[in-house]
Amino acid sequence: MKRCLVIFSAVFFVLLTINPLLASENSHSLKAGLTYLYFDYKELNLTEPLKSTESGFLPGLHLTYNYQGKTNPLYARIYFEYIEEKTNYDGTTQAGTPVTDKTKNKFYNGEVNVGYIFKPASEMDSSNIAFYTGFGYGYWKRGLGGAVPYSEDYTWKYLPLGFRGTYQIDKKWAVGADLALWIIVAADIKVYFSEIDSNYNNPETKLENKLGWKLEIPVNYRLAKHWSLVLAPAYEFYSFGRGDDFTITYAGVPVARGYEPSSRTHKYVVRLSLKVDF
Predict the structure, then answer these.
(1) Quick one: pLDDT at residue 61?
(2) First-residue to last-residue Cα distance in the chain
(3) Residue ranges of the chain with per-residue pLDDT less than 50
(4) Against a cut of 0.70, is the pTM above it?
(5) Please, what's the b/e burial string for 209-227 (b: 16 or more CB within 10 A of its CB; e: otherwise)?
(6) Distance between CA atoms of 142 and 104, rounded to whole angstroms?
(7) Contact 243, 259 (CB under 8 A)
């Protein structure tokens, strides 16, 4: 987290030293800011009393570059977010004994978008709608605690299909909406049982691909000609299906079979950004 804070501090310094007056079209923008979200994860289709849930408030950092053509209909975006914090684990052992603990989490999410902008009727009005697609990548490092702590790596790739619009209320205020479907195309998990005992293997398996979606409502307040403050509440949802069975070995000898249950995740997010147009 400290390394990311240094990087984002450098980005803020760059934001503050950019001379946006060098560009007259202002097709480009850069946003950097803070993320704060409530995380709600649950594994599904478990036989009672078995359960596994994670919940809690998580802080993070995000960085976004946007290109919005003024003389052409091209829309492009590059987005990165980093989140790190503990969540509250509420689950059971395989025997059904209740367990509560803290889970250490790291999340990385990156997305690249390209799309087509529908121009407003009046060039004096910056309101517009853009349809877009692209490629996204997600990563979750889940460090489980308890009597036998170990970690899991979740990775997934997805194709976003979405549209975003901006309505210019007046010279200072603008409000938008960004709605996207996430088509998950490759989801995997790796379980580090060797952290319990080095004689265990670290099995990997594929998760069934499912869908996700998001809705974000950014509110933009113009501080100066090229500077804005953006507050963006959002809701995000994604799920994974049951994973393929995997073999657990000890000193190379198979001792058990396992699988990752299906799961779903809700995120209730607020992002606060400083934005510069250049």
Answers:
(1) 98
(2) 29
(3) 19-24, 121
(4) yes
(5) bbebbbebebebebeeebb
(6) 6
(7) yes
Q: Domain of residue 242: give its range.
A: 2-277
CATH of the domain at 201: 2.40.128.100
Residue 7, pLDDT score: 57
Q: Where are the alpha helices (DSSP H) in the chain?
A: 2-17
For tokens 């684990």, name the residue.
Answer: 89
The residue with tokens 């078995």 is 50
Per DSSP, the residues of 206-268 read EEEP-EEEEEE--EEEESSSSEEEEEEEEEEEEEEEEEPPEEEEETTEEEEEE-PPPEEEEEE
Report how far residue 44's alpha carbon sits from residue 50's, in angstroms, rounded to the nearest whole number. 10
148/101 Cα distance (integer angstroms): 12
| Residue 26 structure tokens | 């202002």
Overall number of domains in the chain: 1
- Structural contact between residues 153 and 138, judged by C-beta atoms closer than 8 angstroms: no
Return d(Cα 195, Cα 3) in angstroms, integer: 25
Q: Are 259 and 226 in contact (CB under 8 A)?
A: no
Signed CA dihedral, 136, 141, 144, 150: sign only? positive
